Structures are given as C-alpha cells and as structure tokens.
Amino acid sequence: MLFNSCAEDLGNYDYKEINEVLFSAVESHYNVLLGEPLEIKPELNFTLDQKGDENDYEYEWYAQGPGDDIILGTEKNLVIEAVQLIPGEYNVRYRVTDKDTGVQWNTQFYLDVKSAIYEGWMVLCDDNGTARLDMLSLIDDEYRTINDVLDFSGSSLKLEGAPKFVYCYSHRNFYGIYVTSEDTGTTRIHPDTFDWKPEYYLSYEMMTLDTPLDYGVDFMNIASFQNRACFIYKDGDIFQYNSTYFDYGIPNNTVLSEAKNFKAAPFIAECFLFCSIIYDADNQRFLKIGYNQQSCYTLPEGNLFDYNTGKDMVYMTYTYYNGGEVHSLLKDPNNSKLYLARMGVSISGTVTQRYYEEIPEDIAAVMLQSKDFAISPNFGYLFYNDGSKVYEYDFNLKQSKVVLDKGAEQITLMKFENKNNIPSSMVKQLHVFTYNESTQNGALELYTVPPVNGMLDLEQRFEGLGKVVSSSYRRR
C-alpha cells in the first residue's frame, strides 16, 4: 500500500485557461450621507477577452448589513441619485458574471452611510404660501443648510397648505418631530429617517374616536422638564398628554367646580411637573394645572394684583430668569394700557407674585404692534420687534431701546429656545430669523445679550433658508 501510494501519476490531463476579471478603481472604503448621490465607476480588465463588451457580462451590486441583502444596482457602474440606506456600515459586494461560462468574480468594500439629518434646527418655511420644512443640520461640527429636507431624505410626507409650526421634544416613549400645515394637519415624522406613514398623524394620539385624520393643532408645548407630558392647543381648547393611557384626553380648559369650559388664551407657561400656568380668556384670569390633571385650579389672592385681572392676555411664557418665572403682558380692554406681570413658581406648584407695573404708553404703543416677544433667561429683558428692528425693554428702568436694526431684512421669527430642546451653549442666545425679499434668502442669527442694555452681539449667522415661520431644535 505504501509503495502504490508513492507511485508516479502518469495520467493525461488537459487544463483550459478561463477568462478572469481583474478589478481596479474601487476603493476599500466609502463614506456617504443619507440622501446624497453615490457614484462608483470601476475599471474591469479581462485576461482572455480583449474586446471586453459590457453586454457579455452581468453585474450586481449588493449591500450586506442589518437584515436582508439589498440590491443597489445591476449595471457596470453604480449610480445612486440619493442613498436611502438606513445609516450604518455595510459590506458591499460587486459581482461580475461571465455570461458565456457562468463564472462569477467579485470584489468588496465597506460603505459607511451617515445621516445628514441627525441633529440641528428644524425650520418650517413659507414657500409662496405653501409649507416647506428646511433644516440646519449639524454635520462634522458644522451646520449645513438643507432645503426641503423631506424631499432630500426621500420622505413620503408632502406638506400641503400654509405653514403653521414645527416642534421637537423627547417623549418618554419616543422622540417626536411634529410638523403642521394648514391642509396636512399635525403629524410626526420618523425621528431618524424623516419617513412618514398615516399612523403618525396626531389624531392617532387623541382619545376621542371622532377626531379627523388630518387633525391640526395651533401649537404644542412640553409640559415639564421631565418630558412626561405635552400640551396641545386648538381653537381655545387645551389638551394634556396622559402618560398613563398614552393619549390626549378630554379638553383641560375647565375648572372643576364650573360646568362650562372656558376659552384658553393661546399661551402655556410650562413651569414644573406639578404646575403650568394658563390663562382663561373668557373670564380674564390666571389658572394653574398639574401633571395628569384633567382640569384647572384657581389661584389664591395675590399681593400685587388680582389673578382675576379683567385684562386681555397679549403674551405669556415661562423663563429661567431669577430661578424661574412666568412673564406675561396684559392689556386693558378699555384702552391701550399695557402691564407686565411676573410670577415665581416653585417645584411644588406654589405661585408667588413678584412684579406688576404698567409699561409707559409710548413704549406700549410700539410693543402692541409686535408679532414676537422673548424674555432673556439671563437678565429678564423683554424683546420685541416691529418688522426690521429689535427692541429691548428693561423693566427696572422702564426704558426701551433699539438693540438691532436689520434694515432691508424682515424679521420673521424671534425667540429664546427652551433649554430642554437645544445645546446648553445656545440657551441664553436670542434667535433671530430674517428674510430678504429681494434675494429670497432666509437666515438664522444667534445673538448674545449684553448685561447693560447694549447692542446685541452677533455670534453666528446661517443662511440659505426659506422664509421661516417656526423653528425647533432636534436634539440627540
């Protein structure tokens, strides 16, 4: 047996050389942003086929990642107009098949898909009367403008009608990016891909079964710093998200001892978990409501003013100034007198009056023409604008001055962002959105507020946006 195993093999074999494919001009690693184009043009050399007719071969590009393999293309060159892969790293194989022999040859590389819509400002714009969602996207520590981010990301949501608002907040069950237009209603989009499906409509979060599918609200406000709840406002009705039943229940604009619902003013001062302040526009009074409560409560007698004010609400917000305060502007319905009221709210829900004074008539006259108001969380200054100028009112001095003049640019939105919704470095910066009609260029400018009534200091400016009517920061 040993002798035979070592015997010389005298067999007659005929080896036939086959056509081989040699790959070049293909990198080992590619990076691409979601929604951006990708093009790879490999060079193919054939050992026995000098002609190299593309029709003699079949081509296949497929990505191996989470889940099933995904076919990317079936042509010699890979040309993708907009990458729609879920962000992540993929092992991509490029396979070439010789139709004559059926032999396959392949090469592989890694494709790292990153999201261009990971974090940044969501800005809802007015595009000739129609809503358009733009984004200032944070990519590699820099903000980049993306116009019509829904189209850019391949979202199936098409906004229709005039823009109303966009709002982002971290829900205890999911991250919500909600957008509202006049004809589309209020809906959220997928927080990572911005894709959409009908069950994202806000109507699916409403308890009442007769809510229209395209139900649209006027605005949303997170109800507490613990992100357990959110308020929505619609035509004088206020609803609070019930974290027990995971829906918006019955309207909360009612007082327990009263039979009739009142019309709430379109402002919610979201203070702490156990207390948010709202205003009864019918009976002209301040009320408070707590977490998971279905009705409001009246406030006890105040030391500076009557909570039953007898005045119309012009503006109200909660600010972090002075440990946390509710600031409101109240107008006498019988004349043009305007009053500034400030209230402190403790974490237990106790409301304390801190300031109540009339604003000088000449200042009030301009202030009443303003569309936007904002309170500095650092100094308590009240900012307002008249279209192109920003004014700063100092309640201690009872004086107002122009701190910014944009000239030909129109100020379309002005605000301080809630600290839960924006990087901490930007909390104290005044956000001023402008629009130049002649150049059709919208911009966001971030300003630092100086401590002693000085002109605003411009820190950053981002251009290329539309005419912004609403903004909200998408955090991670």
3D structure, described in words:
- By secondary structure, the chain is mainly β.
- Helices cover 3% and strands 46% of the residues.
- The protein has helices at 2-5, 149-152, 361-367, and strands at 21-24, 29-33, 38-40, 43-46, 57-64, 70-73, 78-80, 88-98, 104-114, 120-127, 130-139, 142-146, 163-170, 175-181, 185-189, 219-222, 230-234, 237-242, 247-248, 269-272, 275-280, 285-289, 297-298, 312-319, 325-331, 338-345, 351-359, 373-375, 382-385, 389-394, 399-405, 410-415, 429-436, 441-448, 457-465, 467-474.
- Strands 2-9-8-5-6 form a five-stranded mixed sheet, with no helix packed on it. A four-stranded antiparallel sheet has the order 12-11-10-36. A four-stranded antiparallel sheet has the order 16-17-18-19, with no helix packed on it.
- The radius of gyration is 31 Å and the shape is elongated.
- It starts with a helix and ends with a strand.
- The relative contact order is 0.09.
How are the SSEs ordered, and which strands pair?
Blueprint (H helix, E strand, L loop, with lengths): L1 H4 L15 E4 L4 E5 L4 E3 L2 E4 L10 E8 L5 E4 L4 E3 L7 E11 L5 E11 L5 E8 L2 E10 L2 E5 L2 H4 L10 E8 L4 E7 L3 E5 L29 E4 L7 E5 L2 E6 L4 E2 L20 E4 L2 E6 L4 E5 L7 E2 L13 E8 L5 E7 L6 E8 L5 E9 L1 H7 L5 E3 L6 E4 L3 E6 L4 E7 L4 E6 L13 E8 L4 E8 L8 E9 L1 E8 L2
Provide key terms for this protein:
four-stranded antiparallel beta sheet, mainly beta, elongated, disordered N terminus, 36 strands, 476 residues, single chain
